[in-house]
Amino acid sequence: MLPYELSFKGINFKLAGGDVPNGLKCKQNVINLPKGNFTKLYLLAASIQGDNKAEFLIDGKKQEAVIPNYTGFIGQWGHTGHTERFLKAADIAFVGTHKHNMIQNCDLPYEYTYLFTVALDLPKNAKQITLPDNSRVVIFAGTLTTDENNRITPVTDLLNINLKELKSADELFVKKNLIHDKPVIERSAEVNAREKAEYAVDGEMNTKWCDVSANKPKYLVVDLEKEETIKGWYVLHAGLESLDYITKEYSLQIKSSKEGEWQTVDAVSNNNAFETERLLKTPQTARYIRLQITKPDQSEGQTARIYEFQVY
């Protein structure tokens, strides 16, 4: 359970508590800032699906920040030939003692969860902040301060000597979902208006596309409306409904014109993961994107269920 208040380095946060919805998924939300001589905006935040580099706009000016993943290792010991030592550059404001497995309805002890403090510099008389266009980044609270003390940094980082970060900020990139709410121009089929193909690209984790037809393969095609550079893709399967509903075999296909031939740039086989995220070996340029499904579930039936499809 989350507390109602948290304090980190003298910065106080107020939360809604752990028994009510208390996180805001970032979708370019615009927040007007109150008047005051503030120098910093501290956010209580975390990411899903790995660490995410996020782009904030403060009065139209860009600031980037790395929002660490809400779970996983913050650091680990190095054992020659086995594991590599590392320590994440992360300000941990809250540690949860376990995760909850929704499928098996059980707690997972010692699988820790975290909330992090992220600091953004404010120009004088800042009026507005626009949150990232990335629903993987979740904001739990924010505090405005006139903060002089936390500007002090040590000359030498005594804790991190000879340690490397798991992934540096330079290796991350801002993941903007290129197909969010773009037109779906083709589909193999859909059950009805409540489970149409558009719900696979709406950025919501509680809606889905479902195709129960006999058509093979299953597919949906999205028009980006212009050529874009593609670096990776993500699929959220229907594992919360049933483990059998997890898509077993599927691929990402692209082309630059309607008349062109589909090119398979990545393929997944024998998948049993609840969600899959993959980086392409080399970035690709395309306008049209097709998710093609050849084995819709684990028993290789004929019903495809996709909760979310993203390309970035």
Annotation, overall tally of beta strands:
20
Number of folding domains? 2
Helical residue percent?
under 10%
Number of helices: 0
Residue windows where pLDDT falls under 50 for at least 5 positions: none
Secondary structure category: mainly beta
Question: How widely separated are the two ends?
Answer: 33 Å
Percentage beta strand: over 45%
- What is the residue-mean pLDDT, rounded to a whole number? 89
Quick one: biggest sheet?
Answer: 7 strands, antiparallel
**Rg result:** 22 Å
Spell out the helices and strands N to C.
EEEEEEEEEEEEEEEEEEEE
Domain F5/8 type C: 167-312
Organism: termite gut metagenome
Pfam families: F5_F8_type_C (PF00754)
Protein name: F5/8 type C domain-containing protein
